[in-house]
Design a protein that fits this description.
The complex is a heterodimer of chains A (100) and B (174). Chain A is built from three helices and no strands. By secondary structure, chain A is mainly α. The longest helix of chain A is centred in the C-terminal third of the chain and has 31 residues, at 57-87. Chain B has 174 residues and is mostly helical. Chain B contains eight helices and no strands. Chain B has helices at residues 3-24, 28-48, 52-76, 91-112, 126-129, 132-141, 144-165, 169-173. Classes of the chains: A mainly alpha (100), B mainly alpha (174). Chains A and B meet through α1, α2 and α3 of A and α1, α2, α3, α4 and α6 of B.
Chain lengths: 100, 174
Amino acid sequence: MIPLHYYLALSAALFAIGVVGVLTRRNAIIVFMSIELMLNSVNLTLIAFSAYLGNSVGQILVFFVMTVAAAEAAVGLAIIIALYRNKQTVNIDEINILKW
Amino acid sequence: MTPESFFFYLLSVLALVSAVLMITRRSPVVSVLYLILNFFSLAGLYLTLNAQFIAVIQIIVYAGAIMVLFLFVVMLLRLGDETQLVETIGSRKLVGIGLSIALLVEIVYIIGFRSGDKHLAQAENAAAIGTVESIGTEMFTRFLFPFEVTSIILLAAIVGAVVLAKRDFNERTK
């Protein structure tokens, strides 16, 4: 059997890769995809705990996380389309009107 | 090596490699495709954890619906001519990678290898709780209210997406 901490280490590694993507990439869509990757690594943690503790609440929570992720993807991509229409770019270095 | 550890290592390597490729490719379309591969390998890992329902939902909702939406937007925005988008390689990138590695070491230290010898095997009822029947029973009894609330979230997301992405919204309402 695979011990629980193998799954936790894997999801920590996936989360860290997602953080690298958010901090280093400048393309807004790839930053957004890195956030999806981080959400999925947390889902893996929840399901691993659910299986090893024998409790189904973790899997229910994953279902709700997926619903929120779908809503977040729809709204986020609409924001990116609106930004692209106004600025003709998705480079997050050039989208800095909220920064002072 | 037992079949289950073989599948665990295979799918883990696939997930990690596709994640690294996803954040390093220049072209957004290639990145989306690697992310889909990553989601498929995660669905396989969910199967090794006896979560059949979530694995199927992962493929249908994530790899199917959400990533098709991403692919659609990438192609709508004509990002092909933005593959030469200025990607600054500098101190900021190194700081980002350094911070992420620190985070990884921290997480692995705290939750990974401090758990010791506990939870070496899955619970006896692990195969029973991942079925559609068990998830559905929980969802429509104990978690009925949160389940209904998600419909409001989805409605808000639909309205928000339409309002944000609508062209010339202000002109038309004048």
